Amino acid sequence: MKLLIVEDDPDLRRQLSSGLSERGYTVEEAGDGEEALYLGREYPYDLAIVDLGLPKLSGIELIRQWRTEERNFPVLILTARGDWQDKVEGLEAGADDYLVKPFHIEELVARLNALLRRAAGHARPQFDFGPLTLDTTARTVSLNGEPVKLTSYEYRTLEYLVLNAGKTVSKTELTEHLYHQDYDRDSNVLEVFIRRLRQKLDPEQTLQPIDTVRGLGYRFALKATDSAG
User: Fold this and answer.
1) Is the predicted pLDDT of residue 186 greater than 60, yes or no?
2) Does one domain contain both 108 and 162?
3) SS3 track for the chain
4) Residue/partner pairs of 103-112 with CB below 8 Å, 24 or more apart
5) What is the pLDDT of residue 227?
6) Final residue of a domain: which of 100, 119, 138?
7) Verdict on whether the full-model pTM lies above 0.85
8) Could you tell me if residue 195 is left (phi over 0), alpha (psi between -120 and 50 degrees) or otherwise beta?
9) Res. 141: pLDDT tops 90
10) Long-range CB contacts for residues 207-214, cutoff 8 Å, separation at least 24
Protein backbone atom coordinates (compact mmCIF):
# COMPACT_ATOMS: atom_id res chain seq x y z
CA MET A 1 0.00 0.00 0.00
CA LYS A 2 1.28 3.47 -0.89
CA LEU A 3 1.10 6.18 1.77
CA LEU A 4 1.72 9.93 1.61
CA ILE A 5 3.11 11.51 4.79
CA VAL A 6 2.51 15.27 4.99
CA GLU A 7 4.47 16.64 7.94
CA ASP A 8 6.63 19.79 8.20
CA ASP A 9 8.75 18.52 11.11
CA PRO A 10 11.65 16.75 9.31
CA ASP A 11 12.56 14.57 12.29
CA LEU A 12 9.01 13.30 12.80
CA ARG A 13 8.56 12.89 9.04
CA ARG A 14 11.74 10.81 8.90
CA GLN A 15 10.68 8.69 11.87
CA LEU A 16 7.25 8.03 10.40
CA SER A 17 8.67 7.20 6.98
CA SER A 18 11.23 4.81 8.45
CA GLY A 19 8.78 3.12 10.83
CA LEU A 20 6.10 2.60 8.19
CA SER A 21 8.58 1.46 5.54
CA GLU A 22 9.91 -1.15 7.97
CA ARG A 23 6.33 -2.39 8.35
CA GLY A 24 5.96 -2.99 4.64
CA TYR A 25 4.35 0.22 3.35
CA THR A 26 5.54 2.20 0.36
CA VAL A 27 5.99 5.73 1.70
CA GLU A 28 6.33 9.11 -0.01
CA GLU A 29 6.70 12.44 1.77
CA ALA A 30 5.76 16.11 1.56
CA GLY A 31 6.96 18.88 3.86
CA ASP A 32 4.25 21.47 3.18
CA GLY A 33 0.66 21.74 2.03
CA GLU A 34 1.36 22.94 -1.50
CA GLU A 35 3.70 20.04 -2.26
CA ALA A 36 1.18 17.61 -0.82
CA LEU A 37 -1.64 19.10 -2.89
CA TYR A 38 0.41 18.56 -6.05
CA LEU A 39 1.38 14.97 -5.14
CA GLY A 40 -2.20 14.06 -4.25
CA ARG A 41 -3.36 15.39 -7.61
CA GLU A 42 -0.69 13.70 -9.71
CA TYR A 43 -0.14 10.31 -8.06
CA PRO A 44 -2.39 7.55 -6.68
CA TYR A 45 -2.19 6.94 -2.94
CA ASP A 46 -4.04 4.47 -0.77
CA LEU A 47 -3.94 6.78 2.25
CA ALA A 48 -2.51 10.12 3.40
CA ILE A 49 -1.28 11.09 6.86
CA VAL A 50 -1.67 14.86 7.25
CA ASP A 51 -0.44 17.22 9.96
CA LEU A 52 -2.80 20.16 10.52
CA GLY A 53 -0.12 22.80 11.15
CA LEU A 54 1.48 22.90 7.71
CA PRO A 55 3.27 25.81 6.02
CA LYS A 56 2.06 27.31 2.70
CA LEU A 57 -1.30 25.52 2.88
CA SER A 58 -2.90 24.31 6.11
CA GLY A 59 -3.81 20.68 6.61
CA ILE A 60 -7.49 21.60 6.78
CA GLU A 61 -7.39 23.48 3.47
CA LEU A 62 -5.32 20.72 1.88
CA ILE A 63 -7.96 18.12 2.77
CA ARG A 64 -10.78 20.39 1.59
CA GLN A 65 -9.12 20.89 -1.79
CA TRP A 66 -8.43 17.20 -2.25
CA ARG A 67 -12.07 16.38 -1.50
CA THR A 68 -13.34 19.16 -3.77
CA GLU A 69 -11.24 17.63 -6.56
CA GLU A 70 -12.60 14.16 -5.70
CA ARG A 71 -9.33 12.77 -4.38
CA ASN A 72 -11.06 10.23 -2.17
CA PHE A 73 -8.24 8.23 -0.57
CA PRO A 74 -8.57 7.99 3.25
CA VAL A 75 -6.93 10.77 5.28
CA LEU A 76 -5.66 10.41 8.83
CA ILE A 77 -4.96 13.68 10.65
CA LEU A 78 -1.97 14.05 12.94
CA THR A 79 -2.32 16.98 15.28
CA ALA A 80 -0.67 18.35 18.39
CA ARG A 81 -3.94 20.09 19.17
CA GLY A 82 -6.09 18.33 21.70
CA ASP A 83 -8.97 20.74 21.30
CA TRP A 84 -12.13 19.01 20.11
CA GLN A 85 -13.02 21.87 17.73
CA ASP A 86 -9.87 21.20 15.68
CA LYS A 87 -10.72 17.51 15.43
CA VAL A 88 -14.26 18.30 14.34
CA GLU A 89 -13.03 20.81 11.75
CA GLY A 90 -10.65 18.24 10.31
CA LEU A 91 -13.32 15.57 10.07
CA GLU A 92 -15.79 17.99 8.52
CA ALA A 93 -13.16 18.97 5.94
CA GLY A 94 -13.13 15.36 4.80
CA ALA A 95 -10.64 13.51 7.00
CA ASP A 96 -11.51 9.98 8.08
CA ASP A 97 -9.77 9.75 11.45
CA TYR A 98 -7.34 11.63 13.68
CA LEU A 99 -4.47 10.91 16.05
CA VAL A 100 -3.16 13.37 18.63
CA LYS A 101 0.60 13.78 19.10
CA PRO A 102 2.49 12.24 20.78
CA PHE A 103 1.41 8.73 19.76
CA HIS A 104 2.75 5.20 19.53
CA ILE A 105 3.59 3.87 16.08
CA GLU A 106 1.57 0.72 16.87
CA GLU A 107 -1.60 2.77 17.30
CA LEU A 108 -0.90 4.65 14.06
CA VAL A 109 -0.43 1.38 12.16
CA ALA A 110 -3.65 -0.06 13.64
CA ARG A 111 -5.61 3.00 12.54
CA LEU A 112 -4.04 2.93 9.07
CA ASN A 113 -4.93 -0.72 8.60
CA ALA A 114 -8.51 -0.12 9.75
CA LEU A 115 -8.92 2.79 7.31
CA LEU A 116 -7.43 0.81 4.43
CA ARG A 117 -9.74 -2.15 5.11
CA ARG A 118 -12.76 0.14 5.43
CA ALA A 119 -11.92 1.87 2.15
CA ALA A 120 -11.84 -1.55 0.48
CA GLY A 121 -15.18 -2.51 2.05
CA HIS A 122 -13.87 -4.94 4.67
CA ALA A 123 -14.43 -4.90 8.41
CA ARG A 124 -12.12 -7.64 9.68
CA PRO A 125 -8.32 -7.93 9.38
CA GLN A 126 -8.37 -11.64 8.55
CA PHE A 127 -9.41 -13.02 5.17
CA ASP A 128 -10.18 -16.73 4.81
CA PHE A 129 -10.35 -18.38 1.41
CA GLY A 130 -10.74 -22.06 2.22
CA PRO A 131 -7.25 -23.34 3.03
CA LEU A 132 -5.68 -19.93 2.41
CA THR A 133 -5.68 -17.20 5.10
CA LEU A 134 -4.29 -13.67 4.99
CA ASP A 135 -4.01 -11.52 8.13
CA THR A 136 -3.51 -7.84 7.33
CA THR A 137 -2.67 -6.94 10.94
CA ALA A 138 0.07 -9.53 11.40
CA ARG A 139 0.90 -9.30 7.68
CA THR A 140 1.03 -13.08 7.46
CA VAL A 141 -0.26 -15.71 5.06
CA SER A 142 -0.94 -19.35 5.79
CA LEU A 143 -1.93 -22.33 3.68
CA ASN A 144 -3.67 -25.26 5.38
CA GLY A 145 -2.58 -23.77 8.71
CA GLU A 146 1.08 -23.61 7.75
CA PRO A 147 2.86 -20.25 7.31
CA VAL A 148 3.74 -19.19 3.78
CA LYS A 149 7.01 -17.29 3.57
CA LEU A 150 6.63 -14.25 1.35
CA THR A 151 9.00 -11.39 0.66
CA SER A 152 7.79 -7.88 1.50
CA TYR A 153 6.99 -7.12 -2.13
CA GLU A 154 5.24 -10.45 -2.66
CA TYR A 155 3.06 -9.78 0.38
CA ARG A 156 2.24 -6.23 -0.79
CA THR A 157 1.22 -7.55 -4.19
CA LEU A 158 -1.01 -10.23 -2.68
CA GLU A 159 -2.59 -7.87 -0.14
CA TYR A 160 -3.51 -5.35 -2.82
CA LEU A 161 -5.10 -8.07 -4.96
CA VAL A 162 -7.00 -9.48 -1.97
CA LEU A 163 -8.33 -6.05 -0.94
CA ASN A 164 -9.54 -5.72 -4.54
CA ALA A 165 -10.73 -9.32 -4.83
CA GLY A 166 -12.88 -9.96 -7.89
CA LYS A 167 -11.66 -6.80 -9.60
CA THR A 168 -9.25 -6.86 -12.51
CA VAL A 169 -6.20 -4.85 -11.45
CA SER A 170 -3.96 -3.60 -14.25
CA LYS A 171 -0.19 -3.92 -14.07
CA THR A 172 0.01 -0.12 -14.11
CA GLU A 173 -2.32 0.17 -11.11
CA LEU A 174 -0.37 -2.43 -9.15
CA THR A 175 2.89 -0.68 -9.93
CA GLU A 176 1.56 2.75 -8.96
CA HIS A 177 0.17 1.56 -5.63
CA LEU A 178 3.06 -0.69 -4.60
CA TYR A 179 6.20 1.12 -5.67
CA HIS A 180 7.78 4.55 -5.56
CA GLN A 181 7.32 7.12 -8.33
CA ASP A 182 10.75 6.38 -9.83
CA TYR A 183 10.16 2.62 -10.05
CA ASP A 184 11.13 1.09 -13.40
CA ARG A 185 7.73 0.38 -14.88
CA ASP A 186 9.18 -1.43 -17.87
CA SER A 187 10.72 -4.18 -15.75
CA ASN A 188 9.24 -7.67 -15.45
CA VAL A 189 9.53 -7.70 -11.65
CA LEU A 190 5.75 -7.71 -11.19
CA GLU A 191 5.37 -10.78 -13.39
CA VAL A 192 8.05 -12.51 -11.31
CA PHE A 193 6.16 -11.71 -8.08
CA ILE A 194 2.91 -13.07 -9.52
CA ARG A 195 4.62 -16.27 -10.67
CA ARG A 196 6.22 -16.77 -7.24
CA LEU A 197 2.92 -16.11 -5.48
CA ARG A 198 1.18 -18.72 -7.57
CA GLN A 199 3.90 -21.26 -6.78
CA LYS A 200 3.80 -20.53 -3.03
CA LEU A 201 0.03 -20.23 -2.62
CA ASP A 202 -0.93 -23.07 -4.93
CA PRO A 203 1.87 -25.67 -4.99
CA GLU A 204 -0.58 -28.41 -6.02
CA GLN A 205 -2.19 -26.18 -8.67
CA THR A 206 -5.66 -26.78 -7.28
CA LEU A 207 -6.67 -23.34 -5.94
CA GLN A 208 -5.76 -21.05 -8.85
CA PRO A 209 -5.93 -17.95 -6.63
CA ILE A 210 -4.68 -15.39 -9.16
CA ASP A 211 -6.10 -15.15 -12.66
CA THR A 212 -4.37 -13.43 -15.55
CA VAL A 213 -6.89 -11.37 -17.50
CA ARG A 214 -5.24 -11.24 -20.88
CA GLY A 215 -4.33 -7.73 -21.93
CA LEU A 216 -5.84 -6.21 -18.77
CA GLY A 217 -4.01 -7.42 -15.66
CA TYR A 218 -4.60 -9.75 -12.72
CA ARG A 219 -7.53 -10.73 -10.53
CA PHE A 220 -7.68 -12.46 -7.17
CA ALA A 221 -10.25 -15.13 -7.91
CA LEU A 222 -10.93 -16.96 -4.64
CA LYS A 223 -14.17 -16.43 -2.73
CA ALA A 224 -14.14 -15.66 0.99
CA THR A 225 -15.36 -18.53 3.15
CA ASP A 226 -16.50 -16.39 6.09
CA SER A 227 -17.89 -12.89 6.72
CA ALA A 228 -14.53 -11.08 6.50
CA GLY A 229 -15.44 -9.41 3.24
Assistant:
1) no
2) no
3) CEEEEECCCHHHHHHHHHHHHHCCCEEEEECCHHHHHHHHHHCCCCEEEEECCCCCCCHHHHHHHHHHCCCCCCEEEEECCCCHHHHHHHHHHCCCEEEECCCCHHHHHHHHHHHHHHHCCCCCCEEEECCEEEECCCCEEEECCEECCCCHHHHHHHHHHHHCCCCCECHHHHHHHHCCCCCCCCCCHHHHHHHHHHHHHCCCCCCCCEEEECCCEEEECCCCCCCCC
4) 103/78, 105/16, 105/19, 105/20, 108/16, 108/20, 108/49, 108/76, 109/20, 109/23, 110/137, 111/76, 112/3, 112/20, 112/25, 112/47, 112/49, 112/76
5) 45
6) 119
7) no
8) alpha
9) yes
10) 207/129, 207/130, 207/131, 207/132, 209/129, 209/132, 210/161, 213/168
Which structural domain range is residue 153 located in? 126-220
Same domain, 185 and 211: yes
In angstroms, the Cα distances linking 92 to 63, 65, 75, 224 are 10, 13, 12, 35
Give the pLDDT confidence score for residue 150 in this predicted structure: 94
The full length of the chain comes to 229
User: What percentage of residues in the chain have a pLDDT greater than 90?
Assistant: 67
Calpha distance 130→30 (Å, rounded): 42
Look at residues 95, 119, 143 and tell me which one is the last residue of a structural domain: 119
Number of domains in the chain: 2
Mean residue pLDDT of the chain comes to 90
pLDDT higher than threshold 50 for residue 73? yes
Tell me what the mean pLDDT of segment 27-31 comes to: 96
